[in-house]
Each structure stands twice: as C-alpha cells, then as structure tokens.
Amino acid sequence: MILTRFILLFSLLSALVLAVTYPIYAQYYQGLQDRILANEETSVVAASQMIQKEMYEQVHLIAMIADAAPVLDYVTHGRAEQRVALETFFSNVSTNFHRFDQIRLLDNSGYELVRVNLNDSKGNIVPQSELQNKSQRYYFTEAKELADNQLFVSRLDLNMENGQIELPHKPMLRFSTPILDRNGERAGVLVLNYLAEGMLKSFRRQMSRRVDQQGMLIDAKGYWLSNHERSNEWGADLGRAEHTFARMYPEVWSEISAADSGIIATDKGLFRFQSIKPFNFSGSQHAHFKADHYPLFASQSVANTDWKLVIFIPNELIQSRSFLYQPLGQALVALVLCLLAGASLAMAIITNQKQARSREQKELNEVLSDLYDNAPCGYHSLDANAHFIRINQTELDWLGYTREEVLGQPFIAFLTPNSQVRFQEFFDALKTEKQIENVVLEMQCKDGATFYVSSSATAQNDQSGDFAVARTSVFDITDRILLEKKLETLANIDALTNISNRRHFYEGATLELKRALRYQHPLAILMFDIDHFKRVNDTYGHDGGDAVLKQLASTVHSSLRDLDVFARFGGEEFIVLLPEISPEQVALVAERLRQKVAELQINLPSGETASITISIGVAMLTPDDKLLEHLIKKADLALYQAKEQGRNRVVEYNA
C-alpha cells in the first residue's frame, strides 16, 4: 500500500514538474540556439564580404587593364612595336599579380592576337605561331553579344587541358569583355582566366574559425564549391552526381534554393544559409560595394555566380551547450526527482529563468557590441562639429590610437592635409544631402603611416530637425589605390632604365610645350645616343649593353632638375626636355652631361669596366615651332650632325 501511494505520488509530482519545466526548457533551448546563431553571423558576414570584395577587386583590375594605353594603342593602330608593348604589359600584370592563369586579346573574329600564360609564377608570352582560333568558345560568343563596357563572367569550375581535368585542380572563373579602340569601334575581346583557389582558401580559413569548423559554399545546382569534406567538392566537373548537397539534403535544398537567406531546423540540427551574389554590388549592405560596376554585368554572369553559403550546426553541438547535458544539471534533476519538492522546484525554475534571460540579454548585447567593434570595416559617429563621439575597435586598430585618445577629437586631425579640404566639403554637403557615399580620404596613423579609405555617411537630426550626428562607415581600400598606382607605373616607366618611357615623355613634354608657347618662356630639347653602341653589345654581350644603358640613365637623371623631363626614346636613344632655360644654360647643361658620361666608368656583370661617349643634338624652341614633333625632329637632325662631325660632341640645330 505504501509502495503504491509512493508510486502514485511520485508519478503525479513528476508529471507536475514535467508540465511546469518543459515549456521553460524549450524556451531556454530556443534562446541557446539563438545565441549560437548570433555568434555565427560574424562568420557569415565576414565570408560574404570577403568573396564580394575579392570579386570587386578583380572587376576593378579588369577594367583598368581594358582601358590601359598599351591595349588601346595596339587595337587602334596594330603596329609591331605596339604589339611588343602589349605583350610586355600583359606579362608584367600576370607576373606581378598572380591572379590570372591566362590573359588574352582576341580579334573580332575570335582569333588570339596576344596571349600570356602564368607558369611558375611568371607571365610567359605565347609565340604567335601557337596562337589559336577561339571563335567557338563560349566566353567569346557570349562577349560578342555584350553591349560596350559590359562584362561576362563564367560559372566557377575546374580547368581542363586537352579534354582532361588539370591536376592539381585549378578552380577557374573566366571574364570576357569587348574592347573598343580609341575611335570607339569594337576591336576585339579581352579574356582573363581568374585563379579562384586563393579565394576558396580564404573562405575555408574563415569557416575553420567557427565552433565546429564546418561551412559550405554551394553553386545554384547544389554542387559543393567548398566543403569541410574535400572529397565532396566539384561533383559536377568530376562526374560525381551523388556528391551534391541537393541529393544529401533534398528537403533542405528545396528551401535554400528558393530563398536568399534563412534558418532551417531539422532533426539533425540547424542550417543557416545566405545567398552570395558576388557581382550584385547594388544589393550589398556596405557602401563600399555600391553599384558603380553592377550595370556592367550581363544577366547570365549574375546567374553563373549565384552561390549559397551554408553553415550546419548539429544538434549534438547545441545540446553540449545545454545546462541539462552538464554534470551539474543532471545532478540537479536527480536531486529534484528524489526530493519531489514541487513548490521549491517551481521557485528555483522561475529564478533560473529570470537569470537565464538576463544572461541571454547580456550575451546578446555583448554579441552586438562585438559585431560593431570587430566588424571588417570601420565605424564612427561625429557630432555637429565633426568631433568623434563613437568609434569601433577596427578603426582604432587601423589608426593605432586608444579610444580615449580619439573621442572628443576633430576627425580632420586624423587626415592628411590633402584630404582635410575634401572632408570639409564632404561634411558640409552631408548636412543638406543627408547621405553621401564612397568619398576617398587618406587617413593618418599614430605612427605616421597613412592608408586610404572609402567613406560613406548618413546624417541624423535632433528633435528640432537640426543636424546632430553623422554616422559613418569606412573601408580600407589601400590595396586598390596601390594597385592603381602600380599599374600606372607599369604603363609609364621604362622597365630597364627605370625612367620615363616614350609615351610618358610625350604626355609631359606636350604640357610643357603648351605652357612655354602660352607664356613665351624658353624651352629646349636634348636628344642623345651612345656612340658605337653596337660595338658595346658585340664586345660585352646584351647583359653588358643593358648595364651600360642603366648606368647612363642613372648618371644623366641625377644631373637634371626635378622639372626636366627625361625619357628613354628607343634602343640606346634618350631625350631630355628642359623648360625655363636660356640658350647659354642649355649649352652648359649639354656639355656637362657629355663630359660626365665620358668620365663614367661603368661596372659590367662580367666584372670588367667600360667607357662610353655620347653625341648630343640640341634644339631651342622658336616662334615657328608649334608642334612637339617639329622640335624633336630638329633635335634629331642636330644629333645626326654631331654623329657626322665625329661623335662625342654637342651640336645645336641651325637651319
């Protein structure tokens, strides 16, 4: 009888406890899931922005290559020396950036005009005899249908050579875009094969920082582009139809493929997914990726790169964080069942519930604060006087200051002088326009270093409607700016002598000539070359000849003024433009250069030394000279006369 009552009471009390505690535990379990998912958002945002930033940089680089002077010069005129310059330019881009497996220029019929392959980290120019007809390849036929300045992007797949998947695997994206000549006419197609392995490695590295180190990148058909189980990748290319997310989780895939983002709960765990459209910059949440390039993409390109980022959180991981799966929780359950103290248990559960909610709120606030402080971009807020009132840790790390050193200080104090004026204009305009995006500024670090940022701001008004706060996001775009400067250097500087090339000379000299003609200032041109340079090459070889050219250029450059324009004109021929100089001074400068070169002892790679002389032709600007070519021709004639008169001398042009 006692046993029966005990069993009945135990059963009733157990049922009562279960009825009271189950909803509480369900709510706690849901909160636990929410916290884990909140922590995962950092990985989702960071991976999405990393992929989009990488693609943004490639598009920017492709646009600069397509508009580069060597490309435009060759497709407009098609001369042999311009072809050589274009091959050199493609080779330099391939060698310096290691991003493209192939860079090709095709004519309007699909035949390769120039091709450079990346082999052993070096851009190798393919001989003309090996160039091929690519008129039937999809990247050419797609590009033919594009409007001017549009860009086609292929799907991401494994590269094939001679009909076979290349080993080791090379994940590849192919970009193609029409090329216009300087007259605005279609002149061909630029094709670049982008090596995507670096981007995928960065994605896997980002996913490895998660709690279970599992994260997936999936294409629109459900095939894995990246998976923590590497053997599951590239099922479409390797003929493994069973290696797809769509086949492994068909019900989950139907929801993921139909939505841009969301959370799906299954009996195995939670799936957090997010669409990644790397070329849909107009839909990005950060102003740095706003759609200055988006309209340039063909619709097929966006469809080809419709990817999904999927993070799986197994139930075992969630349960391992649950209080009831910890030793203390299990002991508490055992104690409650033994004591059967329903009222006390209810009080304890209510208290624990309040504490849990407080902890959840605190943890949520910490997560939000961590997301703000450690975002991949900088955030700050300025008051109406443009002084800092808030700044995140990312931007503080860039600047090298503590929060106390920055708050209350004027933002302009952390800018270089050139950017201070630009910021003041930007800040004044913000008060009326309410939102301004993508303003490039140069910021000054505590240690004196500088970096470039793209800044976007939104104005906030007070209750009276007056401007009160500017909330600003900044993205570090130093790599992009340095990339632009590096490409400019490649296009303007002679690779051997490290002085201006012929094209850059014409740009600078043309401006100086217009200035001299407008203000009637004196100006002169010196043209000189090395006497008997063929004999130097025959005696010391081409390595010796290169050493002579480099040391000659260095000696002459160090003897000129900053405002003088000095360039290699071709082969062993050099040219100097001297503005603001009298005929008497020109004669002294030319003779001084001739003597310095004659006294120069040139160290050769073989260990020997060599001496050279130069012949110099001088032409002064006269009222009859209206074109730069006329002045250069006069200097060239004077140089010819110097050669005829025995070399190693200075001759001024005399009609």
Automatic annotation (TrEMBL):
Domain GGDEF: from-to ranges: 521-655
All residue ranges annotated as the PAC domain in the record: 434-489
Keywords, in A-Z order: ATP-binding, Kinase, Membrane, Nucleotide-binding, Phosphoprotein, Transferase, Transmembrane, Transmembrane helix, Two-component regulatory system
TM ranges: 328-350
Annotated catalysed reactions: 2 GTP = 3',3'-c-di-GMP + 2 diphosphate
PAS domain span: 360-434
Subcellular location: Membrane
Entries under SUPFAM superfamilies matching the protein: Nucleotide cyclase, PYP-like sensor domain (PAS domain), Sensory domain-like
EC number(s) from the headed UniProt entry: 2.7.7.65
Listed InterPro entries: Diguanylate_Cyclase, GGDEF_dom, Nucleotide_cyclase, PAS, PAS-assoc_C, PAS-like_dom_sf, Rev_trsase/Diguanyl_cyclase, Sensor-like_sf
PROSITE patterns: GGDEF (PS50887), PAC (PS50113), PAS (PS50112)
NCBIfam families from the UniProt entry: GGDEF, sensory_box
Protein's name according to its UniProt entry: diguanylate cyclase
Natural source organism: Oceanisphaera pacifica
